[in-house]
Amino acid sequence: MDPVTLQVMVGALRAACEEMGVVLVRSAHSANVKERRDASTALFDASGEMVMQAEHIPVHLGAMPSAVAAVLHEDHEPGVPWVLNDPYRGGTHLPDITVITPVFAGDDPIGFAASRAHHADVGGRTPGSMPADSRTLEEEGVVIEPSRLDEDLIRELSGRMRGPRQRQADLRAQVAANRTGANRLVELVERYGLDSVKEAMSETLDYAERRTRARIAEIEDGAREARDVLEAPEGDIELRLTATVEGDSIALDFTGSADQHEGNLNCPLAVTLSACYFAVRVLADPDVPPCAGAYRPVSVTAPEGCLLNARPPAAVAAGNVETSSRVADLVLAAFGRALGQGTMNNVTLGNDDFTYYETIAGGQGACPDADGPSAVHVAMSNTLNTPIEALELEFPLRAIAYGVRRDSGGSGRHHGGDGVIRELEALAPMSYSVIAERRRHRPKGAEGGEPGAAGRTLLNGEQLEPKTAGQLRPGDRLRLETPGGGGHGRIG
What we know:
Structural class: alpha+beta
Number of helices: 11
Helix content: 25-40%
Strand order of the largest sheet: 2-1-5-4-3-6
Shape: globular
Low-confidence stretches: none
């Protein structure tokens, strides 16, 4: 395929994914999707390779190919979607529900349209389905094995979750988003022909691979090591990485990392892969077409039964959000990068009448040639915040403080970004759960740059543990001070 036609096709596939995202966000009912945009969309070819994604949530997108693989060999019918959230069969953690729709041109399969959204509740023992202290998957919510999705199943699943009408609306929004992606693929076939579209998908994957390999080849060959920890309730858990560059490929080996955890810091392998792919894309070529071709030069080893390749039925609520962040940190640190906040600062509030979930922004690590950005969602998150106006309108909450946490970024020739202060007051009785990191260990700088400030979680002024849960009474105030990013380079 000639370069001009290829770029036209790449643009059309990218636009289709972005349109899917717009349909999903504008059709959803929950603040988590319509305000925070905690959702992702992608298109796959008939063999299950991701040919394009919208620039949404890194932890969703790198793991979504595993979800498509889970249904790839099922019997498919045009327009009949599949649904799943099982972390050990293509999911990440239970609130992230994936809907996958096969796409046909007549009788010929073209590929799949897929969307993943973090639902504000999927059942389980705590509102919001993000318990800080879960030990089994069952405690975290409803486990959905790969199943055909129809209205009867939507009603059956939502009936086991809090806020069933909102859950139904968000699932239907995902179906609508997939339908949009499927229609755009069929239109491409009608315009260019099936063979040309299949060739464009294959060429897109090969093009992304070539560009990624070219940038990896510029990195000096050899092995690099990194170690870091997760802040479990019982103490620190160590993760280890040996990253080896050989020619135009990268091997990431996590042998020596801790065994799977009795709590919920465990990762299914799909999440570990997702974090690795994100970090390598940052190191190599961030502007490469976002597709599976960019991942071909990367191999990942995580021994089965370790924290980063856990076995069922291990709990995974924190693994998807916090452990994935640490995996990305390890890869970036191995290549000499200053680290960002390294946590999503997950806050879940709720009672029988509402559920609220949010990740809080922080500081990004400085670059060799620039300061780190402040008060942004970095690394594996990439969501927006819930606007104060929407938060106070929809939930029994009052925002007491929301601003930049000044001087929390690490100093250096280039400063790390500053974190955020966000304080909420409960206006009704509710439960809370906070899953956070970098409370005991500061995000590291690079090349002599200072680490960023550690984060803090406070309830009525008293500091809490990184993973904590309890009850709020009216008037109680929950305050998060998020970490700053590490600085880069010595001053002077």
